Amino acid sequence: MPLTFELCPGRMIGGSHPCFIIAEIGQNHQGDIEIAKKMIKMAKDCGADCAKFQKSELECKFNKKALERPYNSKHSWGKTYGEHKRHLEFSHEQYRELQRYATEVGIFLTASGMDEMAVEFLHELNVPFLKVASLDANNFPYLEKAAKKGRPMVVSSGMQSMETMRKVYQTIKQHNQNFTILQCTSAYPLDAEDVNLRVITEYQKEFPDIPIGYSGHETGIYISVAAVAMGAKVVERHVTLDKTWKGNDHSASLEPAELAELVRSIRLVETAMGTGIKQMLPCEIPCHAKLGKSVVAKVKIPKGTVLTLDMLTVKAAEPMGVRAEDLFQLVGKSVKEDIDEDESVVPEVVDSYGKKAKC
């Protein structure tokens, strides 16, 4: 059984615990804190476990030239990339306000720390867990510092190789036992042929003592539901209030109705996974009573006859006779009463049926 741990206060993940569903708001709030609050409430109303943002300290994440470069995209909120990013970045006090609001509506809140200073702030903010974005999965000094904070970690793995992810696992494991790795492909939106859900299975083999999850950027919900059927214990999906809004992520995000359907579908699949024990279930008894087959006499069988296979057949019969799977056990046994042709061969008329031979 994969490792289980408490990702958020009172919320375990892994093993038989329900999949933890993260609604990735990211920067789809358009830089407007009131929209951000609406998205937090939407995530809660749709049944997600956590609303997540992206926190950057821009001068720590980007060098000066990167911030000064012209940004002429239709998605731009400023003339330079720095102006664009500053428009979308909430202040520390705004994050505290969002945290208070999330607590009021009853949903966990965290963020991806997009640089080391952002991780320091999120640790100070006392988020339940730290999210490592794919772009930092191979940033080993960052990973080590984040792991040493002692908070649970969720690590996306877009753009990485299995060799790198082994190093990620080893780096974090030295300092922190409570983390999960998510299969992820960093494309927005993501085409189905590039999803590579089978990596979930490979991660489960490579890292059997941690839960494995999935962070999806595809359109629709079907692939994410399939990930849960394959054993994903955390699912992260970008969310939006309107896919037509300005911003690169909106087209790969789920609107409220889609998020709600994703949550319902995941919970339905979890219920359908069952125990893995194959047996007749109580719900099958009416069908078995009506249509289940049992042993019937192919010919008239007088009392005292030793049964041979050519005397017997299998039919849906009334009353129910000896179970069909026990047909061969009847061969060589004698009957204690006459059995008419096409009559059920019931257990009580067969001598020693069901009794184990003495050694």
Question: What order do the helices and strands follow?
Answer: EEEHEHHHHEHEHEHEHEHEHHEEH
Radius of gyration: 30 Å
The helix/strand class is alpha/beta
The total count of strands amounts to: 12
The proportion of residues in beta strands is: 15-25%
Task: Give the mean pLDDT.
Answer: 96
Distance between the termini: 40 Å
Low-confidence stretches: none
Q: What is the general shape? A: elongated
Helix percent reads: 25-40%
Sequence of strands across the biggest β-sheet = 5-4-3-10-9-8-7-6
Largest sheet: 8 strands, parallel
How many DSSP helices?
13
Feature tags:
359 residues, alpha/beta, two-stranded antiparallel ribbon, 13 helices, elongated
How would you characterize this protein structure?
The chain is α/β, with parallel strands linked by helices. 34% of the residues lie in helices and 16% in strands. The chain has 13 helices and twelve strands. The chain has helices spanning 33-46, 58-61, 64-68, 81-88, 92-105, 116-125, 140-148, 162-173, 198-206, 222-229, 256-273, 285-291, 327-330; strands at 5-8, 11-13, 20-26, 50-55, 108-113, 130-132, 153-156, 179-184, 212-216, 234-238, 293-297, 312-316. The longest helix has 18 residues, at 256-273. The protein is elongated, with a radius of gyration of 30 Å.
Summary of the model, kept short:
This protein is an alpha/beta fold.
Please give the structural blueprint.
Layout: E1 5-8, E2 11-13, E3 20-26, H1 33-46, E4 50-55, H2 58-61, H3 64-68, H4 81-88, H5 92-105, E5 108-113, H6 116-125, E6 130-132, H7 140-148, E7 153-156, H8 162-173, E8 179-184, H9 198-206, E9 212-216, H10 222-229, E10 234-238, H11 256-273, H12 285-291, E11 293-297, E12 312-316, H13 327-330
Parallel strand pairs: 3-4, 3-10, 4-5, 6-7, 7-8, 8-9, 9-10
Antiparallel strand pairs: 1-2, 11-12
